[in-house]
């Protein structure tokens, strides 16, 4: 099996395309099962956030695996495959490992160094585990990716500014509202993004803060945790009229903030952090209403981490990629070593059968002693070379040792029968 990463993000697609690609949380298990039901896909993890949708897969061939993943994405999004192709990035094997570790470390985020992606990746891995679509390869990849993200935040200052999509959005909002101190804020949605928003507003001293959510109980709990005020969803129109700043981050598949609703709200800055968007498309241009969405954030100027911190994270990522590839090469030689040992055992067994046919006078005890002796000799002869080749295989270029063993001993290792399809140009636009 080989690693394949296919996705679209704010770098390659506008928010309208990401809206169509977004997989609702309730649909993730179904899409994961659809993926592993494809001919070339053996394992799958699906990461769907406000600014990226990507699939990590273990595939038996590059072209077949890519076709399978793209077909599932096209079916799930309703975007024709030919149109979808222009928005996708593709990474294979080493490039897929590198990409996943850069994502977990926040290097590929809209706000470089933000820590939220780590939790989102953990949730994606958990969903795949619950759906039984992550096997040995993706279990190892995801676990190491999470370790990389933790190292990046623990060992460098890449997140010292506490940046997130929310803080970036507030920076843009301040260019319209000025100093946000004392501004009244309304948060719509009490999920993960809503909770991050309330926490960020509270730390920044912005308030008063009101929270509304279709599930009143969740809004109540979030408000109590941060000293905010929960507002019944039925009173949303009134809450909008009392706010200077609105941050909307629901999981609704339909717009929550319609033109009619916002037309009576008065002057207002709305941060739409939801994908699909919470603000209806026809709100654009409405007098007194300023909309800041994911597209706006992607093109805005934001504070970046210090170059030294970014470089330090890149070094961590590079070292961890090498470590993972060493593990991967070590696991890839295991079937070859097993095939060599099986070949040796088969030869010993065949020779013993010939010996017993020529020497029928041997007792069972004598046969057992001869058999054990021959097997011990073979095991001792193979021990040092196989230990050595496992060590060498874990080093860069180590795949050549497995290939040499297969060639020298004419070993039939089934996993290598499909690899003729697996020689793409590694990596794509990202």
Automatic annotation (TrEMBL):
Family: Belongs to the glutamyl-tRNA reductase family.
Pfam families (alphabetical): GlutR_dimer, GlutR_N, Shikimate_DH
Gene Ontology MF annotations: glutamyl-tRNA reductase activity; NADP binding
Assembly and binders: Homodimer.
Gene that this sequence comes from: hemA_1
Domain Tetrapyrrole biosynthesis glutamyl-tRNA reductase dimerisation, chain residue ranges per copy: 313-411
Residues that bind substrate: 49-52, 109, 114-116, 120
Domain Quinate/shikimate 5-dehydrogenase/glutamyl-tRNA reductase: 171-298
Protein known as: Glutamyl-tRNA reductase
Chemical reaction(s) catalysed: (S)-4-amino-5-oxopentanoate + tRNA(Glu) + NADP(+) = L-glutamyl-tRNA(Glu) + NADPH + H(+)
Site (Important for activity) residue list: 99
Swiss-Prot/TrEMBL keywords: NADP, Oxidoreductase, Porphyrin biosynthesis
Domain notes: Possesses an unusual extended V-shaped dimeric structure with each monomer consisting of three distinct domains arranged along a curved 'spinal' alpha-helix. The N-terminal catalytic domain specifically recognizes the glutamate moiety of the substrate. The second domain is the NADPH-binding domain, and the third C-terminal domain is responsible for dimerization.
GO biological process: protoporphyrinogen IX biosynthetic process from glutamate
Role noted for this protein: Catalyzes the NADPH-dependent reduction of glutamyl-tRNA(Glu) to glutamate 1-semialdehyde (GSA).
Additional remarks: During catalysis, the active site Cys acts as a nucleophile attacking the alpha-carbonyl group of tRNA-bound glutamate with the formation of a thioester intermediate between enzyme and glutamate, and the concomitant release of tRNA(Glu). The thioester intermediate is finally reduced by direct hydride transfer from NADPH, to form the product GSA.
Source organism superkingdom: Bacteria
InterPro entries: 4pyrrol_synth_GluRdtase, 4pyrrol_synth_GluRdtase_dimer, 4pyrrol_synth_GluRdtase_N, GluRdtase_dimer_dom_sf, GluRdtase_N_sf, NAD(P)-bd_dom_sf, Shikm_DH/Glu-tRNA_Rdtase
Domain named Glutamyl-tRNA reductase N-terminal: residues: 6-156
Pathway: Porphyrin-containing compound metabolism; protoporphyrin-IX biosynthesis; 5-aminolevulinate from L-glutamyl-tRNA(Glu): step 1/2
CDD domains for this protein: NAD_bind_Glutamyl_tRNA_reduct (cd05213)
Active site per UniProt: 50
Signal sequence extent: none
């Amino acid at each position: 099996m080989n690693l394949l990463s296919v996705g679209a993000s704010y770098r390659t697609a506008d928010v309208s395309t990401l809206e169509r690609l977004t997989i609702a949380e309730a649909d993730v298990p179904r899409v994961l099962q659809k993926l592993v039901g494809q001919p070339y896909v053996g394992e799958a993890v699906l990461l769907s956030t406000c600014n990226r949708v990507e699939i990590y897969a273990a595939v038996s061939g590059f072209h077949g695996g890519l076709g399978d993943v793209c077909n599932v994405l096209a079916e799930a999004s309703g975007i024709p495959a030919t149109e979808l192709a222009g928005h996708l990035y593709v990474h294979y094997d080493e490039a897929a490992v590198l990409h996943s570790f850069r994502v977990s470390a926040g290097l590929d985020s809209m706000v470089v160094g933000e820590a939220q992606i780590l939790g989102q990746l953990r949730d994606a891995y958990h969903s795949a585990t619950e759906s039984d679509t992550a096997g040995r390869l993706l279990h190892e990849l995801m676990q190491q990716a999470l370790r990389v993200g933790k190292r990046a935040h623990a060992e460098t200052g890449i997140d010292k500014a506490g940046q997130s999509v929310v803080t970036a959005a507030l920076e843009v909002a301040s260019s319209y509202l000025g100093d946000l101190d004392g501004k009244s804020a309304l948060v719509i949605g009490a999920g993960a993004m809503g909770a991050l928003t309330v926490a960020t507003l509270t730390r920044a001293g912005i308030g008063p803060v009101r929270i509304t959510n279709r599930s009143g109980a969740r809004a109540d709990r979030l408000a109590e945790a941060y000293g905010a005020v929960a507002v019944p969803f039925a009173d949303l129109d009134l809450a909008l009229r009392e706010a200077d700043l609105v941050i909307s981050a629901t999981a609704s598949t339909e717009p929550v903030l319609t033109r009619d609703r916002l037309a009576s709200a008065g002057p207002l800055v709305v941060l739409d952090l939801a994908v699909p968007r919470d603000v209806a498309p026809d709100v654009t241009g409405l007098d007194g209403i300023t909309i800041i969405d994911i597209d706006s954030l992607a093109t805005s100027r934001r504070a970046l981490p210090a170059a030294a911190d970014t470089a330090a994270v890149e070094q961590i990522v590079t070292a961890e990629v090498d470590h993972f590839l060493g593990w991967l090469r070590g696991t890839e030689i295991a079937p070859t070593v097993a095939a060599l040992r099986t070949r040796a055992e088969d030869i010993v067994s065949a020779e013993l059968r010939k010996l017993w046919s020529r020497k029928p006078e041997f007792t069972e005890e004598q046969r057992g002693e001869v058999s054990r002796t021959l097997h011990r000799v073979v095991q001792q002869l193979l021990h040092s070379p196989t230990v050595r080749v496992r060590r060498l295989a874990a080093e860069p270029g180590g795949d050549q040792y497995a290939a040499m063993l297969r060639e020298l001993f004419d070993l039939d290792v089934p996993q290598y029968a499909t690899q003729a399809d697996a020689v793409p140009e590694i990596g794509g636009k990202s």
